[in-house]
Structures are given as structure tokens and as C-alpha cells.
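Lab meeting prep.
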Amino acid sequence: MNVPLPSARAHERLVQNLATGIDTPAAVSWAHVTAVAHHCVRHALVPATEPPGSPDAVRRVITELASAHPGLAGFLDPQVVPFWTAPLTPAAWTVLRDFWAGGEVMDDGPHRVDGYRLGDAYQALSADARRSRALCQTPPWIAELLLELSLEPATDEIGPQAVRMIDPACGTGHILLEAFHSARVYRRRGRAYGAHLSSEASIERALQTVHGVDLDAYAVLLARYRLLATSASILKVRIDQLPRAWPVQVACANSLLDREEPLLERCRYHAVVSNPPYIVVADARQRDLIRKAYPRVAAGKFPLALPFCELMFSLAAPGGHVAQLTSNSFMKREFGRKFIEQYLPAFDMRWVIDTSGAYIPGHGTPTVILVHRIRPPQGDTVITVRGVQGEPSIPEDPARGKVWSAIADSVRRRLAEDRLKDALASHSDIA
């Protein structure tokens, strides 16, 4: 059974206590890297066998981790992990040691080493990541549905060996991890495609499928770690025993403005899946650059959700599938008029799912799921799931909240009906 994750306020107090002798970025770094070190040792992912019981022991574990795979070398970079240049006082270490209490709080559940709690902890610890980089984790149960609407049909069409997906605002990798699992054991009409593959082959194939980009260098590093930690756990080896040539395709870049990053090549991906940032950029220069780069959608006081939508459409190959959980503010405000009337009608809208009434931890903004295919509209029908009322109270398990359960059940029932129709049509054609 999981130990409850400390509250958001508890994470804030920890950073405040650590920041009495060092600056806030270093305090956040110490707090989170110590959790990563516990996670590594607890799950036997590095040669170290003893829990990190001192600051020096944390550094030794992180040094081992950084050398375990080329994708993790950034753990030695003080610009990304500033704890290297900010020593802790004995009193601060005692506070930090007691907070993580041996590492049990980092367990994701029985037999899982996915690091979901590590991702959630970084969001809770870093106010700067939440405010200036709009870090907001996508719960796994939402990521799973987004992928059912995008990556799964794309894989049916393209095949599991060739399909590619990207999350251009991947954060610490919640959607990427769900995509990794989906790609590792691909199922079509009840048959497991990966069943005849070795574990090594299925993992390598999944790593080749999954791509991510984010503005936050530490979040990118954490996403890479989570993919490699999960791969090592499945094979029951340490990270340094994985093939060093295995790809970990997660890059740090400004997805909206960087045209040099290879992972942001246009028209490349069969599935583009994201929970893009919803904030309005405060910096006037950045806002003008984005407006110039995305003039078709960036009108008025636009939120980043609109240029990210255009970016996602541009990353997708012709006929590709795009699924996003995004702010619904464009439906109600003037800045969304141009987006709705001039931009979206050029694409094949498949689903509009009202999630504004669902309880999604950490999301205070009303949301909607949009699913498109990158082709002209096919017919005049769009499947919609409309909200009637919100959750009567905060559910103990958000994945089983009344509103979300009704949404997921409705979507999956329709998907099952469509698959049955396709199967019957295929059988009729053969006959």
C-alpha cells in the first residue's frame, strides 16, 4: 500500500525551511534530487545499496545515476541540478531526511517503478515551474484515455514498428509513460502484438515510439529517468545494465519557437498527445514572438493553449491523430472567435468531450478534450460528450469520480461500438 504523499503545503514548507541558507532553486533541487536518490536505491536501479543517509551519500547516488546512461548525464550539470553548488547545513539535512522518511512515500504502487509520484512531487515543490513554465501534471487515467483516442488508432493504421508519437509539453513525462506502456504491449482486436517479442525488443520499440519536448530542463531530465527506470524495472536490471544506445527521445526546448530542435520536425508524428499550458504569457517580448509565429490563432490576450494547438497540428503527419486536454476558455471569450471560425474548420474534428465538471487534481481551469485528424473534415458529424453537472464533492479517488467515470464509460462504449462495426464490415467484405 502506498504511503500518502505529503500535502502541497508540506512541500512548500520543506522548500521554505531548506531555503534559509541557500536560494530557492537550490532548495527545490535538494528536495527533489534526494527523493530521486531514494527511488534509485529503493528499486535497485543503481549499484548503491544503502539508503542515502547523508548529503554526500545523495551526491554519490546521483553521480552513479548520471553515469548509468547518456540520457542522464544532465544530473551532473549544476545549471540543471543546482544542488551541486549549494551545500546543506546539518539542520537542513535533518529536515530533508525526515521529510522523505526512507523513501516509502515515493512508491507508485505494487510492482510499479514509473515515478509518477516523483513527477507530482516536483510540481508540488517548484512554484517557479508551476507559475512561469505552467507545469501541471496529467493524471495517468486521463493520459490513458487521450492515448486510446489517438495513439491506439494510429498504431492500428501505421503498425507498431513504425508509429511515432510526441508530447510537445511533456513536463515530467506522465503522458510519455502511459504511451510507453501502450506501445510496449500493443493490442489489436484482443490480441497482444508484443506477446511474441522479447522484453528487450518490446521496450526498445516503445522507446523508439515515444518522444517529448519541454521548456523545463529538470522536468525533461526527470522524464528521461522515469522511462529508463521503468525499462530497467521491467527487465529486473540496473539502469547501467541497459543498452547505452537505447533512445530516450526527450529534449529541452521552447516547443513554440525553437525550429532547430530535431524532435520538433513538422509533419513527422502519427499521434500528437498533450495537456498544453493554458497560461497567458506575461513577458511582452515572448508574447509578440509567439503572436508573430502563430498569427492564425494568437489573437488578443491569447492563452498558450491556442498556439500549442496549431503546433500540435503541424507536428502531426497528414492523417495523423491529435488529442489534447486543454482549456475551454476559447469557447467563451473573444480571443477564441478567430480560432473557432477560421482555424479549426479546416481540420477533421472527431471528438469534443466536456471535462469541465470532472475533478482533475491540480487543474483549476475548466477543460475540454479535443480530438482531431489532420485532414479535411469528413462528413458533418462530431462526437460530443456534454457535461450536465460537476462532481457533487471531491472524490476520494479522482479516477473513479462520478463525472470522470461517466465520461470514460461513454467514450469507451462508443469506441467499442465503432470497433464492432469495423469488424463486421471487414468480415462482410471478406465474405
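Slide two material, second protein:
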Amino acid sequence: MRTYLGYITIFLLVPILILFIFLSYQEWSSAQSPYHVLDEQIPIESIKLAQNSYMKAANGKVISEISTGEKRNYLKLEDIPLFLENLFIVTEDQKFYDHAGVYISGISRALLINSQNKTIEQGGSTITQQLARNVYLSHDRTYNRKLSELIYAHQIERKKSKPEIMELYLNAIYFSNGAYGIEAASQYYFSKPTGELSKAELAFLAAIPNNPENYNPLKHFDATKKRQERLLKQMVAEGDLEQDEYEKLIKSTIKLDLSTPVDLYPDYVTYVHQELKNLVASSEGLDNSLQSPDVAIRKQAEAELDKRVKKLLNSGVTIHTALDTKLQTQSKTAVQSKLGVNDIEGALVVIQHHTHELVSLIGGKDYKKNSFNRAYQSYRQPGSAIKPLLDYAPYLEETDADINQLVSGASYCSNSYCPKNYSGDSYGMVTLRTAFAQSYNTPAIRLFEKTGVETSFKYLDAFDFKKLSEKDHHTSSAIG
């Protein structure tokens, strides 16, 4: 009987064993290594820091410094003084070149102090952890954020070399007053590049990131100076600075020379920003969605366009324009002087005829950046400005006429439509050159009629006038 029960038990257990082996094999096959999971959840292949972009005039002069949030000028490590690198290593992370992103002793010490004080006062962060915090995480003082910081730091160390981490760190850290990275700080506080800073100035800037609010030089200059001296003293203690040089550096006068962002010629710059958005929309295939009658589709397209433009401007591009700065100044003076102090407004656009480049644009008498720009946002009747495009050019092209050919400048009347010349006079026979130069109305209408309404309007197709429609195809359009 026992033997019989044993056989039955074995018979029943064998399928269960086979099922167990099968399921275990499936689990084993689908199991992933911890590193594989980390690479999927935290990809660190490329770290892109937002940078300033610049707009330049035709002569190469910077006319606008563009920042969508973080003001940063990225510097390669070889362009950053070694003294600054050593200063941060000594004062922030002496085991930087030895650890794998996390320094256990530092964390243990921070945990002990925090537990004693029943609050999170110290973080024990390595340079890699600080980089992870600045790029990927917040600055909240919580243990959850700290754990995330350790994981991100470990991933960064796996994917980046120590020099790459140091380069990113010196470009990522915050130096107060909107300046991110050492070059932006150098340009803002001292109006010169990092490579031209003295060791005393470098140490002064290095004192800020530890606590950008408390060591803001504009509010707490003395506190920043004292911390600079403590950092330099720490370098002496670690054997990275001689005592006599330390004495000289702490006695060096620190004189701030604040710079302001370049933001010139707002009329022209605002238009270029709009043209940039149009180019991005066209290249990204968003034109149709932006013109959609469906409000939801249009809003979604606008949000997507804003995101892509911001991404482009954060990449540190240089926008080259054809702006003639001298002519722009002259144009602004002309508009202001001719229109005077009354309520009359005006705009002016200058296009270089042989290059087709926009060399000057005035959006109003006292135009302020991003306000209503009359040069390209104000749709008005063209007046006599349409005559060269709609009357003279089509006529000359269609008839091969000479500019000295005669045309009647006498009074004109057709089907109760009787326009007059601006002066009210009748001029008899005049040359095309004279009629054009004096902007006479009646000769222009006669040329328009000879060419034909539809033929003349076909010459406007190439200009892509947005407000032009079939309703405009009539005789009075000849004079605007």
C-alpha cells in the first residue's frame, strides 16, 4: 500500500516540478541586470545644459543676448583655470578622483549630524551628487531626494569620465543673480571672461555656490569675502597653496564690475524673433496646424512651437542678421523727428534692393520690445507704395516700354470713379520716370488698365501678401 501511495505521490509531483522549472526558466529569461534597469530608467548618455544664444548685426556686433531661463556660457574644461578646479576639489570633494560618485564616510558623517540635530542640515554630497542635483533633481532637503541623488550620481560616474563630470559641474552650478556656470558668473560680476580672472577673483566666485542666497555678493559682500578667505585657507591646509601667496590673495581688492545683458534695437530684434518662430514652424511642419480653424489644434501647435523654439534657443545658437546698425539709428531718428510729439504713429522698413536683405526696421516712434510692432503687425492700405509692384513693374515687363515713354497725367474718370493727383493738378503728357518719381495717380491708373487687372495682380503672387483677396481686384487698387 505504501509503495502504491508513493507512486501516486511521485506521479502527482512530477507535473508540479515540471511547471515550477518552466516558470522559473521564464522568470530567469525575463530577468534583467540592475545596470540594465538603471540604463533604461535613468539614461545619462548626453547631458545638455541650457546656454545663452546671441543675435548679431551685419557687422558682427551682438545686438541681443537671449536667455530663456538659465543664463549660461558653456566653457570647456581646458578653458577653465586649473586653480579653480583644484579649489572646488579641496573645498567640496577631496576624494573626487577616488570615489565612484558616492563617498560613504561623508554620508555617514552627515547622517550622524542630522540625527543628532533631528533635521537635515548636512548632505555629505560629492561633486557628482551636486551635479546630479543641479541637472536632474530639486534642492529639497528630503531623504527621498537624497536617495535619488545617490542613484543618479552612480549612473553619471558609470557613463562619464572624471574630467567630463568636472566640466559639467563647473558649468552647471548656480552663482546667484541668474548666473549659471563659471563663465556666466565671471561675465556678470567682473565683465570679463574666466580666463582673465585673478586667483583672488576666482576664489571669490567659488565662495558663492555653497549657498547662493547667503553668499550673494550684491547683498552680502562681506560674507562672500570671508568665505573666500576660508576656502583659500583650506587650500593652504591641504598643501595646494603657499602661505605667502595666501596672504597676498586675501589682501587683494575685489572690485565688482557688473555687466548688463545686451538688448539693443528692439524693433528689429522683435521681428527677427518672430521670423525665427516662422522658420521653425515651417521646418517642423506646423504651419497647417497653426492656421487650423480648430482652436484646440491651434493651441496645441502653438505650445509645440514654443517648446521647439525654446529648445533651439537653449542650445546656444548665433542668429546672424543683415541689420545695418548705423541705418537703424538714422531711421529711428527720422521717424521721431518727422512725426514729432503728436499722436501720429509710423513705421519704417528698409530692404536692400540688390541683396533683398532687411537692413532696418522701425516699429513705432518709441517702440518697446515685444509691444505692438507697426512695421509687420499693423495691416493697412498700402497707398502709393503699391504702384511700383502693381502698376509700373507689370507694365514694363509686359510691354518692354522705356522709362522715358510718355503717359497721360491728365484728369481721369471712369464709371463715376474720378481719382485726382495728390496736388489736384492735371499734368498732360509726362514720362514714366517723372510719373513714378512724383507718384502721380492718373498715369498709374492708365498703366494698370493697359496691362489689365488680372495680369497686374499676378505679379503680386510672388510677394505672398497675406491680406490680399479677390475683392481687391479692381481699378482703385492701382493707387492703393
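Talking points for slide two:
The first strand starts at residue 53 and ends at 56.
Residues 237 and 243 are 9 Å apart (CA to CA).
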